[in-house]
Amino acid sequence: FKEFVEKLPSDGVLIACVDNSNVRKLLKKVGVATITYGFSLKADWQILNFQVRNQKASFDLKHRDGLLKNIVLRVPGRFNALNAVASLIAAKQTGVSFDQAKEGLEQFGGTKRRFEFIGEVESVKLFDDYAHHPLEVESILRSAKEWLSQGRLIAIFQPHTYSRTKSLFKEFSKSFSGADLAIFVDVY
Fold first, then answer.
1. What 3-state class would DSSP assign to 12?
2. Which residues partner with 67 through β-bridges?
3. Which residues, in sequence order, are bridge partners of residue 51?
4. pLDDT tens digit sequence for 44-73
């Protein structure tokens, strides 16, 4: 991330999430204009009133020009709210109106292999997600519980690479605590 930031032109703008402690440390060392976002009180663009109902996430967004109310997403998780805010800021920087950007976010149905709905058989819903790091696993399982709000959550995990599995084994072993049942298959 530091290498990326160093490649920004002097007239560039860094859009950064201040909820991450590593990003906050880096922001003290950058030499370009910065716009911050997050759930943090220190964010230039602060997410407020985040909630999930009926498989939709919604939140308000406070910034120096006022308050954008009721931004609705059709994808789960606080991480997707953060991604949405980053895209709203980028859209504003390029001249897209908030109304247009908000409408685009409300129509966005997600990306392939990120909590992608695969199908349903006998009331069992199957989703695919390419979470391959313990923090991603923990985050998507928390989001899935919140999004689906009822029934058991069964996670089937296939690690990709022996080296990552070995080096992050302790973290992986804790990251599945949000599932009611975790099933592990052989390394891909």
1. coil
2. 62
3. 58
4. 999 999 999 988 999 999 998 889 999 999
- Rg over alpha carbons for the chain, rounded to the nearest Å, is 18
Contacts of 44 (CB under 8 A, 6+ apart): 35, 36, 37, 63, 64
**Using CA atoms, how far apart are residues 24 and 22, in angstroms rounded to an integer?**
5
Instruction: Describe the crossing of helices 78-93 and 98-107 by its angle, rounded to 10 degrees.
Output: 140
CA 21 remoteness from chain centre: 16
The C-alpha atoms of residue 3 and residue 26 are separated, in whole angstroms, by: 11
Token pair belonging to 145? 């519980």
Q: What is the pLDDT of residues 16-37, one digit of tens each?
A: 999 999 999 999 888 889 999 9
Q: What are phi and psi of 153, to 5 degrees?
A: -110, 115
pLDDT for 94: 94
Strand 154-157 versus strand 124-128 pairing type: unpaired
Question: Are 173 and 133 within 8 A, CB to CB?
Answer: no
- What single DSSP character describes residue 180? S
Coil, strand, or helix at residue 101? helix
The single residue listed with the structure tokens 């599945």 is 176
Find the helix or strand (DSSP H, E) in which 9 lies. none
As beta bridge partners, residue 131 has none
Pairwise CA distance, residues 3 & 34, whole Å:
16
